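Record minuted for completeness.

…
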Amino acid sequence: MRNFLIINILAIALYSCTDINDEHQEYLDKGENIYTEKPDSLIVSPGFQRAKLQWFLYSDTSIKKARVFWNAGKDSLDVNISVNPQVKNVIEVIVPNLDEGVHTFAVLTLDGFDNKSIPVSIGGRVYGSSYQSGLSNRAITAYTNEGNSIVFKLANVFFDGYIDSELKYIDKEGLEQVIKLTDEAKTEFKIDDDGIDLNEPIYYRSIFQPQNSVDLFYSDYAQFDQ
């Protein structure tokens, strides 16, 4: 088993601050100083109006918190952390309430005396309503009776970030049901013919997950024209 520790932290403190460049200039001006361990291998994962930052820390037990900057340093958050020197510490922080678009993030660590590390920066995209409203549906092209089942066939078309589809229908008991694609090749929905009321409307939609996204995105439901 890999020996590492994952620390999942939700951003809780938000306040205005000086420009990120001021953080760098401080180290140039002061010369010799005490620096905490800086974040290693910083990555950013997109989400719906949020982003997840992840990095590693290894040995500096003096570290008490991390500080994340964005919006050209005008916004930031502090998160409490602790470092176990016996393991590889994986730090994960969710930055919420972000506008859709490309953001630049900077991360530094601090000890109990506010000694700081050198900041580490990274850029990443955040998704929102504009992205979601532009998603296309992978259409149902036909349905057939196969034995005791009804099979809905999907178009052999895949879109960037597409991972699955959903079918929403009414069963013979009058209850709404939602299922995902039922075959490994992701080409069809199969339902027992006594489990669906074909006299009721049938709807479908597509599910997307952009690369490394922490969230799923859904197209609008479309009605299947029987």
